[in-house]
Amino acid sequence: MKGPPLKPTPIPRGVSLDSPVDRLRGVDAKLSGKLLKLDVATIRDLLYLLPRRHNDFSNFASISELVVGEEQTIVATVWEAREKTLGQKGRLKATEAVVSDETGNIRVVWIGQPYVARVLKPNSRVALSGKVEAYRGQLQFQSPEFEILDKQESLIHTGRLVPVYPGTEGLTPRRLRSIIWQALEQWVPRMEDFIPEDLRKRAKLAPLPEAILQGHYPDDLISLERARKRLAFDEFFLIQMAVLKRRRSWRDAAEGISVQANPKVRDGFIASLPFSLTDAQERCLWEILADMARGTPSMNRLLQGEVGSGKTVVALAGLLEAVASGYQGSIMVPTEVLAEQHFATVSRLLGGLARPLREENLITVYLDSLPRPISVGLLTGSTRAALKRELQQRVSEGTLDIAIGTHALIQEGVEFPRLALAVVDEQHRFGVMQRAALRQRSGTTPHLLVMSATPIPRTLALTIYGDLDVSTIDQLPPGRQQVLTRNVPPERRDAAYGFVRKEVRNGRQAFVICPLIEESDAVEARAATEEYERLSTEVFPDLRLGLLHGRMTPGEKEEVMGRFRNGDTDILVSTAVVEVGIDIPNATVMVVEGAHRFGLSQLHQFRGRVGRGENKSYCLLLSDYSTPEAKERLSAVERIHDGFQLAEVDLSLRGPGDYFGTRQSGLPALRVARLSDHDLLKSAREEAAMLLQDDPDLRKPHHESLAREVARFLDRVRAEVS
Ligand code: ADP
Ligand code: MG
User: Which of 12, 60, 173, 237 is the most buried (most CB within 10 A)?
Assistant: First the structure.
């Protein structure tokens, strides 16, 4: 096998890869605790604790060849090494040594590491790796990595590509490297490859033991990439196995409901709208109706499209079909505000039909094509208790046709006897497991339509939503315009306010979004109130401001939004939680405070609130945060106006873990794979499908270790999600 030589080591009886790390030499309870902070509990975890990067110390030099500023390695003999105190009051302890080779000698200091003096014995041979600097006209090594030769066969701290692991307090890189090396020596030769040989060859993958060893201690960058590719394949492959198995079991399990589309209902609804559907909307609607007509297996579909692309209309058309066939439907969302907005949108969209009757949290409309009226109810946590009971009762009796609400809907045990279509909005806040719970509600499985306004790059969609079919509304309704976006540095804040004032003078309106505060709704509401007061008294005392936050009652919110819609408010100050999904064609400026705290996709969504009328619109990103990363991210929003492209950028800058928050995505953190590994994902997906085709339950003898690995993976997912 390639890689640094591994000294053959015996293993104590009863120790396996899944034994706790304290079974390794020199790992005590205290150290175990520190490793746990790095999510390492077992020896296997330790082997998978892959370095963040490598230091290239493979460039050997003799002392006379050393150059200032470059990473170099020397092999030398210790002349002397002693402890020293530095600093004004002699508080800083250090080691100072002189080492030599046949070409000369050089001074070495280790600041803050007096123990090194005790380790480096005169006349011993050492390798030193690091940068050389000039000090008082002489070259010296400053705190280099060191390694005493002839103690072990392989260099692990110097002289090669040396792993740099994620740090944790009280655990030096050196100590961590030694422990991991011990685990590698013991276990790499004993590791089983769970990927079947033929697959491994077909996909041109490195064997697992080699990949693990090279992932830590690569011979060169090519071997490192080969190792990374193998380990990334494994991650994708296991996810795909899990996802495809689940998809299969759903397909085999419950019976779906066949909803035959009624063209009169659909055409009547579409004709009642003040616009015609875009081609993309029509295509997505057809895909949904075809799934619903099929019945079994029931639909399991993601409907994605940017804010304003018209998802709600499409979902509503589907719901009306379900209702026309005598079934019920629901729209479930993560927050109350979103539920209210959906209710308002649906009410408005149904407004074109004959004689809508509006009551509190309830709207009833007559369709020409149906003998009975259709009722739509709103059910949230803050719905009056009596009204809530009444609506819930109507749901369980089957007399409420469409229920819109928060997940209180599922959690409070409301029975949905005739639920045929469940629409879930803003999926990423739900997650795979909740989705499963939703599907297990009743005997037959309702059709599931997941709507997401966050454009999800295809790789991620396949990874997280691998069990869903995908429909994409990739076209905005005509007349939407590009919103000119600019980053505003702190010193230009007044200019930004001046710009808002100018727009308002010209009769336009503006939004101001307050910074995201994750602590609680209450804290965020308070901060928004303060910002509102500041803007009202100090900045815009002569203008009319409104305030919107998550702690207001639905009535208060409706009133505030109503005033803004009617043009009685010039500037609406709002928290980020309030996703103002209302159409205000007269609003032309979106100001986002603390812009660096938001995800790029979220900023893109805020921006989508303006530019809906005929006037040129603007988005101003205010931020006092000027790290290069923050600048790069925000400048991407200035440049890129395509939500999908922006999502890709966001993903590559932040990494998938942060993208949705792993917990919420119901996906284990990807440790090695990158979402830009399209080809690898594709091959993993195809191989997983082929393998399951051949051996659906992984019963064949040569799939035994794979079956164990899949089981282990599922345990990990469950542990991370729960
Ligand atoms: P999404 O849920 O994707 O954010 P909505 O369904 O809420 O989008 O639609 C956003 C706005 O665009 C709504 O006011 C809706 O009435 C309007 N709309 C939807 N489809 C069209 C269309 N094809 N043409 C014009 N306006 C549309
Ligand atoms: Mg919407």
Answer: 237
Q: Which two tokens stand for residue 313?
A: 């209309």
The span from the CA of 432 to the CA of 463, in Å, is 11
Atom from ligand 1 closest to the CA of residue 608: 4
Q: Give which of 592, 620, 579 is closest to 531, Cα–Cα.
A: 592
pLDDT of residue 685: 87
Q: Is 325 in the pocket of ligand 1 (CB under 6 A)?
A: no
Whole-angstrom distance, CA of residue 292 vs CA of residue 322: 9
Domains in the chain and their CATH numbers? Answer: 1-52+165-190 (1.10.150), 54-163 (2.40.50.140), 192-252+656-661+673-694 (no CATH), 263-473 (3.40.50.300), 484-640 (3.40.50.300)
Q: Mean of the pLDDT values across residues 482-510? A: 95
Which uninterrupted H or E stretch holds 464?
A: helix 458-464
N-to-C CA span, the chain: 40
Q: What is the pLDDT of residue 440?
A: 54
Q: 23 near 41, Cβ under 8 Å?
A: no
Q: How far apart are CA 383 and CA 305, in angstroms?
A: 30
Give the whole-angstrom CA distance, residue 315 versus residue 51: 46
Query: What distance in angstroms lies between residue 302's CA and the mean position of ligand 1's atoms?
Result: 18
d(CA 249, CA 696): 10
CA of 308 to the centre of ligand 1 (A): 5
For ligand 1, whether the C-beta of 278 sits within 6 Å is yes
* CA angle, 482 then 486 then 488, to 5°: 160
In 217-335, which ranges are continuous DSSP H helix? 221-252, 263-272, 279-294, 311-324
Q: Which of 312, 427, 602, 604 to mutate to test the pocket of ligand 1 (most atoms within 8 A of CB)?
A: 312
Which tens digit of pLDDT belongs to each residue from 557-584? 878 988 998 999 999 999 876 555 567 8
Find, among 310, 309, 330, 308, the residue nearest to 319 by Cα: 330
Strand order in the sheet with 484-488: 484-488, 618-622, 587-592, 509-513, 571-574, 545-548
Instruction: Render pLDDT for 17-61 as a digit per residue (tens, 0 to 9).
Output: 999 999 999 999 999 999 998 889 999 999 999 998 898 888 899
Instruction: Please report, to the nearest 10 degrees, the dihedral formed by the alpha carbons of residues 448, 449, 454, 459 taken in order.
Output: 70
Considering only 200-204, 221-225, 439-443, 490-494, which range has the smallest mean pLDDT? 439-443
- Could you tell me the pLDDT band of residue 426, with boundaries at 50, 70 and 90? low
Total-model pTM: 0.65
pLDDT tens digit sequence for 571-624: 999 987 655 556 788 999 999 999 988 888 788 888 988 988 889 999 999 988
**Cβ–ligand 1 contact at 277 (below 6 Å):** yes
Coil, strand, or helix at residue 77? strand
Concatenating the DSSP letter of every residue in 175-234 gives HHHHHHHHHHHHHGGGPPP-S-HHHHHHTT---HHHHHHHHHS-SSHHHHHHHHHHHHHH
pLDDT at residue number 661: 38
**pLDDT category of residue 664 using cuts at 50, 70 and 90:** very low
Torsion 305-307-310-316 (CA) sign? positive
**Of 581, 625, 621, 624, which Cα lies nearest the Cα of 605?**
581
